[in-house]
Amino acid sequence: MEEMISKNFIEQIIDKDIAEGKCPKVVTRFPPEPNGYLHIGHAKSIILNSGLAKKYGGTFNLRFDDTNPTKEKTEFVQSIVEDVKWLGADFGDEYLYASDYFDQMYECAIKLIKKGKAYVCDLTPEEIREYRGTLTEPGKNSPYRDRSVEENLALFEAMKNGEFPDGSKVLRAKIDMSAGNINMRDPIIYRIARMTHHNTGDKWCIYPMYDFAHPIEDAVEGVTHSICTLEFEDHRPLYDWVAIECGFKNSPDEAPKQIEFAKLYLTNVVTGKRYIKKLVEDGIVDGWDDPRLVSIAALKRRGFTPRAIRTFMEQVGVSKSQSSVDYAMLEYFIRDDLKLDCPRVAAILDPIKLVITNYPEGETEMVTVPNNQENPELGSREVPFSREVWIEREDFKIEKPRKYRRFYVGNEVRLMNAYFVTCTGYETDEDGNVTTIYGTYDPASKGGNSPDGRKVRGTIHWVNCETATEAEVRLYENIVDEEKGVYNEETGEMNINPNSIQVIEKAYIEPTVTSYKPGDSFQFLRTGFFVIDTKDTTEDKMVFNRIVSLKSSYKPQ
Prior knowledge:
single chain, alpha/beta, 12 helices, 27 strands, 25% helix
């Protein structure tokens, strides 16, 4: 019962606001800072906010909180727009910027100064920290706190006009230096910074702080429920103070109303932007969309689907308490999403040639293969078969292990959807490595069934040598060493898994895959789910990324 309540506590608040007439139309927003690519944690916020707007027939805004131009790039803006669209969140025909409201924010600052609620302060950053006090000791007033309204207006205007060096003065809200909540101890709301902004260029040399800008953005856009993560819970009194003092609402219970929920924490994954940036800059990964990462761009390239991510988020739910979720749970839902919709094809990743000596030389026939044995609606295809085929090296043993049912001399196996074949011999190179296997087939067993009813216990897959498509296949593991944890507690460095990627440069895949395009997914028989890579695939070379293996350690509740 508690689980149900935790999943719906935000909806309960919205229902109450609607019932009390405080919310004629629900408006939510997702406000990313364009200083990097979005990751799986952001996906939770996107799906939650857009889902609430959809459920209540409201509006969902995508708005960039671009108040810190030092780290913001147009590249990140474009990637975020693509990711939000890909997840299926409908933000209408346009996206918004916090910088669109810089003029209104400036006017709000002037309003606070005129009300005696803001002042220009000359303390250095170090002095401001010293004056702020601690969690147990109150702060003390700045010596500049009692400047007159006229002096503050003149100084703030001079700040805007570029008359002072960067960092020499700030505008602070005048609240209470003895407040128990440190966020209320005269927080900085504007600083001087001569930086070219990606959206406003060089118009401004003063920029608002996030805690000041965010409630104004929400209020101007008519956001009713500003849903954010738990680290902003202590900032909520300041959010309400700004909205009230700037005249956007009369009490904390009115819109815009901030509501906090617990972040999504996945075990053994890297989500911190500075850590991902280091992985990119050190060349450990090939970009923010490297399939070993959990950025949304990386998950998309890896072959995850929006539907699987949304289902995963629904199962995780919304809560006020922090907890970690096993990455295997996310993998479970992508398997579940793909298993009935993906065609199943034969791919040989570690090939060894099988020569069927009694099959006519130079002859090729077509065998009918179901596209997905669990979903007959996907139909079937025709696959070429002839005298020489590739099979997996692990499907042959010189010395038969106990309970081994595949190829060894004298044993008969089923070539999937084709014929029964009996192993008659093999060749090795000078080092003793098997190079070729020989066998004979039963022509009466076409389709993998014997007319005399004899049982064959082993079944292996194969690819016709003459028509096989050569491809590069990439097998991924976690980017970090799961046994050691993500970070080394002593050094702060990441525990990188040296085997996080295995590249098979020449795998053989049945030729039907050439009719598909980058981004299309398959199940490789007995190996896992794969996607045609959208970044490195060319007309001359196909590259496949393993999305996930076939087996899962996660069991749904």
